[in-house]
């Protein structure tokens, strides 16, 4: 006898089962939207250019070619030459134009094809953009975004593989963000464009094509991630892993491996390099009593070194049961050969080793 509420008992048993399954399927939550980091940034640019007529994008190949990494795909066709501008191969020139436009009241987004090339324009970024608001006693804000791929890619050798998080994080007057996943990329980009200060957005070339689930909240045109606030990606009780950009994924993977061995790791995604959310890190260290920092940049004067100093100077130092351990890129220019390159960038195995050494279990 058919007892399933709402089921037509005249149907065959097989069709009754099908009807029940269809209803259960309709009850379930909609599947999460999968969005690549590239498309998340594209959405943010599109929404902010549409929202504010003062916003425009300029850089090498950003318009007709749709961007060297296709991040600006479709924007030139939608908004035209006045909002999406191709520039000559002259970083100092177009960065200077962008800074001047910001001083004049516009809100430019200046793309560097890679942040390694931003060194051609570092005088504009530091001396012109970062310092003018202070030197003008608050009369001349410079609302500009400098964005592009940062850090090591694959097989592009030393002049295309530096991480500039510590370089630009060193300079007062700048805000520096370093997204990991699609949600980070969209929310931080929108926050950067709306900010009245110069913001450096350090993307990662190897993450552009990686898809992540984008929450319903993040799909909103009003979604913004506050600059200066880290996110705990994984709760844990025994050791804190702090990282940014692509290395966050390595930390989460290492934490999953270590969990099978009974080691419970907390993973913090910095999101912002400057201003740094040291309070979130301190609260985690107070709970776990151990800290490992992970970054793709060089060790000397790096992001991890700054975290070490901040922890030593603050109240969380008294809760540490062992010294802070840093996992970094090797202290050499990036080699071209793949096997050497792999040994110069932090891998999951390096993080696992650092955790076990910190906890004294090896």
From TrEMBL:
UniProt keywords, alphabetically: Carbohydrate metabolism, Glucose metabolism, Metal-binding, Mitochondrion, Oxidoreductase, Potassium, Pyruvate, Thiamine pyrophosphate, Transit peptide
GO CC terms in record: mitochondrion; pyruvate dehydrogenase complex
Taxonomy, superkingdom: Eukaryota
Cofactor(s) of this protein: thiamine diphosphate
Claim: Mitochondrion is one of the keywords in the record: yes
SUPFAM superfamilies: Thiamin diphosphate-binding fold (THDP-binding), TK C-terminal domain-like
Catalytic reactions of this protein: N(6)-[(R)-lipoyl]-L-lysyl-[protein] + pyruvate + H(+) = N(6)-[(R)-S(8)-acetyldihydrolipoyl]-L-lysyl-[protein] + CO2
BP-aspect Gene Ontology terms: glucose metabolic process; pyruvate decarboxylation to acetyl-CoA
Database matches in SMART domains: Transket_pyr
Enzyme class per UniProt: oxidoreductase
One Pfam family here: Transket_pyr
InterPro entries: PDHB_mito-type, THDP-binding, Transketo_C/PFOR_II, Transketolase-like_Pyr-bd, Transketolase_C
An example Gene Ontology molecular-function term: pyruvate dehydrogenase (acetyl-transferring) activity
Xref: CDD domains: TPP_PYR_E1-PDHc-beta_like
Subunit structure as annotated in this protein's UniProt entry: Heterotetramer of two PDHA1 and two PDHB subunits. The heterotetramer interacts with DLAT, and is part of the multimeric pyruvate dehydrogenase complex that contains multiple copies of pyruvate dehydrogenase (E1), dihydrolipoamide acetyltransferase (DLAT, E2) and lipoamide dehydrogenase (DLD, E3). These subunits are bound to an inner core composed of about 48 DLAT and 12 PDHX molecules. Interacts with DLAT.
Reported function: The pyruvate dehydrogenase complex catalyzes the overall conversion of pyruvate to acetyl-CoA and CO2. The pyruvate dehydrogenase complex catalyzes the overall conversion of pyruvate to acetyl-CoA and CO(2), and thereby links the glycolytic pathway to the tricarboxylic cycle.
Name by which UniProt lists this protein: Pyruvate dehydrogenase E1 component subunit beta
Annotated organism of origin: Engystomops pustulosus (Tungara frog)
């Amino acid at each position: 006898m058919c007892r399933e509420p709402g089921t037509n008992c005249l149907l065959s048993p097989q069709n009754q089962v099908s009807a029940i399954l269809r209803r259960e399927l309709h009850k379930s939550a909609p599947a999460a939207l999968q969005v690549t980091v590239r498309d998340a940034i594209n959405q943010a640019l599109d929404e902010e250019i549409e929202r504010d007529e003062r916003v425009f994008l300029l850089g090498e190949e950003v318009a007709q070619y749709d961007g060297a990494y296709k991040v600006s795909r479709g924007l030139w066709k939608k908004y035209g030459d006045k909002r999406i501008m191709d520039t000559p191969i002259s970083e100092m020139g177009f960065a200077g134009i962008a800074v001047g436009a910001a001083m004049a009241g516009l809100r430019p987004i200046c793309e560097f094809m890679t942040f390694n090339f931003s060194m051609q324009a570092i005088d504009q970024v530091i001396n012109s953009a970062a310092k003018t608001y202070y030197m003008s006693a608050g009369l001349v804000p410079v609302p500009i975004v400098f964005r592009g791929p940062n850090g090591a890619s694959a097989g592009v050798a030393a002049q295309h593989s530096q991480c500039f998080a510590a370089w630009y994080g060193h300079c007062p007057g700048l805000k520096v963000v370093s997204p990991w996943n699609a949600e980070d990329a969209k929310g931080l980009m929108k926050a950067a464009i709306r900010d009245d200060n110069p913001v450096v957005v350090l993307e990662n070339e190897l993450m552009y094509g990686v898809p992540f689930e984008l929450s319903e909240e993040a799909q909103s045109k009003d979604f913004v991630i506050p600059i200066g606030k880290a996110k705990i990606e994984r709760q844990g009780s025994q050791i804190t892993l702090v990282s940014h950009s692509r290395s966050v994924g390595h930390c989460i993977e290492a934490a999953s491996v270590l969990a099978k061995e009974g080691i419970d790791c907390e993973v913090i995604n910095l999101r912002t390099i400057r201003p740094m959310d040291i309070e979130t890190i301190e609260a985690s260290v107070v709970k776990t009593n151990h800290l490992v920092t992970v970054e793709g940049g060089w060790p000397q004067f790096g992001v991890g070194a700054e975290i070490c100093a901040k922890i030593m100077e603050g109240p969380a130092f008294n809760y540490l049961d062992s010294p802070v351990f840093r996992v970094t890129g090797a202290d050499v220019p990036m080699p071209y050969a793949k096997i050497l390159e792999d040994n110069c960038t932090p891998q999951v195995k390096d993080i696992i080793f650092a955790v076990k050494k910190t906890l004294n279990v090896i």
